[in-house]
Design brief:
Number of helices: 14
CATH superfamily: Alkaline Phosphatase, subunit A
CATH architecture: 3-Layer(aba) Sandwich
Distance between the termini: 42 Å
Number of domains: 1
């Protein structure tokens, strides 16, 4: 590792020893050490590494509604009448083109085409096609931009989610939120720059912390996960028997020890840790305030749906995301699992839409009525799409769809995006991109561009080369910009 990376991620043995001895003598023991883990999760700096952005930004913050598991574009946004006509017939070799399939359907003797069991309608002035199982999203289509020609090389969940979040299929790279925190810092000195929310009690593919990790960037840039319940952030509350005044005195004494070390030589790591401790202390006041939804009026709960009153649900997390956005959190990441319909698609995807449709649309409406949508970029989508053929036996409308990386749909809104538009197109079978392909790195480059960042210039030198979110390629999707 080069010297720059060492300065950012290395540890000074004397610093560790002094801090450990102090915590032990203060009587904090393991509780204090556990509490200190929180400090590594929070961004210490209000400003990022960029002294100024590369161009005028359209967005100040991002809310990414990640639908984990791979929502079926063919049953939600990408209307394909031909599949209904050819329901039950074989996927033509001329369409598949010998492309790789997963092990779950690659050995099937037959790949019968499966038309969507749901009705589609054109909605709004934009005339966007949308499924009947998304009635609330249908009401806001004129504020959305559908990107229908996304594609990825990843065909399984772990690499695919890692790819869309970090720009690489391989673990160890910084997540998008970490890159933005590193580059732009935080707008609120009392809250983390990067917050993660996960729908509670949902089954599906596992979500692991590397999806919101900082990789080789300093650990203070990784996402801070908020949970439902008494302690939204682990280890934030004072241990039993420790008052706020005692905590303040401990931090003052710890700062004095750090200042003594700084007298022997400047050390950015020590200065960063001082700021991290102070942020965590301030968060003891700011986190309870932002996560307490009791001051929201009934009209807001009605907008987001009845689940909004149940902390940890998707609806409650969407409402919390709005509260975090209006308080200046830079990157807010929501995860909702359960979109992996290999079988029983009709019932499974309808249930997923019941859980997410109203709240997703409500977030757009709520941000808009507060004047926040203009500079808040909202993203909805998963890691890949689903196949146009049935996984396993096709029995009328009782079927499932396998993973499909060759084309899928996501939507974006606000933050400099052209509303009421669709970009890209798939073929008549919904299997391949037919027009304006968008790679994940193009998608990521566009997100950074909207925040005023040239994706080729926000880099970090590690192990001898400069890394970036978009790795070695990617271009901004200019036609979708307002």
């Amino acid at each position: 590792m080069n010297s720059q990376a060492n300065r950012c991620t290395g540890y000074d043995a004397l610093s560790q020893l002094s801090r450990r001895r102090f915590l032990e003598t203060f009587g904090m023991g393991l509780g204090g050490v556990a509490f200190s883990q929180l400090f590594n999760q929070a961004s210490a700096s209000e400003g990022g590494i960029l002294n100024q952005v590369h161009h005028r930004p359209k967005a100040k913050r991002v809310i990414f509604l990640c639908q984990s598991g791979g929502p079926s574009h063919l049953d939600l946004f990408d209307h394909k009448p031909l599949l209904k006509e050819k329901h039950g017939t074989e996927l033509p070799d001329s369409i598949r083109k010998g492309q790789r399939l997963t092990a779950m359907s690659g050995n099937q003797a037959s790949l019968p085409l499966a038309g969507s069991p749901f009705k589609f309608e054109q909605r709004g002035q934009s005339g966007a096609w949308i499924s009947e199982i998304l009635p609330h999203t249908a009401k806001v289509v004129d504020q959305l931009c559908f990107v229908k020609s996304l594609y990825t090389e990843a065909i399984n969940h772990g690499p695919a989610v890692t790819y869309i979040q970090t720009g690489s299929q391989f673990p160890g790279r910084p997540s998008m939120g970490a890159w933005l925190s590193y580059g732009l810092g935080s707008e609120n000195k009392d809250l983390p720059g990067f917050v993660v929310l996960v729908t509670k009690n949902k089954g599906g593919q596992p979500l692991v912390s590397r999806f919101w990790g900082s990789g080789f960037l300093p650990s203070r840039f990784q996402g801070v996960r908020f949970r439902s319940g008494k302690d939204p952030v682990l280890y934030l509350s004072n241990p039993s028997g420790v008052s706020g005044q005692s905590r303040r005195e401990m931090l003052d004494a710890l700062k004095a020890l750090h200042d003594l070390q700084l007298e022997n030589g400047a050390d950015p790591l020590i200065e960063t840790r001082i700021a991290q401790y102070e942020l965590a202390y301030r968060m003891q006041m700011s986190i309870p305030e932002v996560t307490n939804l009791s001051d929201e009026p009934d009209s807001i709960y009605d907008l987001y749906g009845k689940d909004a009153r149940n902390p940890g649900t998707y609806a409650a997390n969407c409402l919390l995301a709005r509260r975090l956005a209006e308080r200046g959190v830079r990157f807010i990441q929501l995860y909702h699992q359960g979109w992996d319909q290999h079988g029983g698609l009709m019932g499974g995807i309808k249930n997923q839409c019941r859980e997410t449709d109203q709240a997703s649309a409500a977030l757009i409406q709520d941000l808009s009525q507060r004047g926040l949508l203009e500079d808040t970029l909202v993203i909805w989508g998963g890691e890949f799409g689903r196949t146009n053929y049935s996984q396993g036996k096709l029995n009328g409308n009782n079927f499932g769809r396998d993973h499909h990386p060759r084309c899928f749909t996501m939507w974006m809104a606000g933050g400099g995006i052209q509303p009421g538009t669709s970009y890209g197109q798939t073929d008549a079978f919904g299997y391949n991109v037919a027009e304006n392909p968008v790679h994940l790195h193009d998608f990521q480059a566009t997100i950074l561009h909207l925040l005023g960042i040239d994706h080729e210039r926000l880099t970090f030198k590690y192990q001898g080369r400069h890394f970036r979110l978009t790795d070695v390629h990617g271009k901004v999707i200019k036609p979708i910009l307002a």
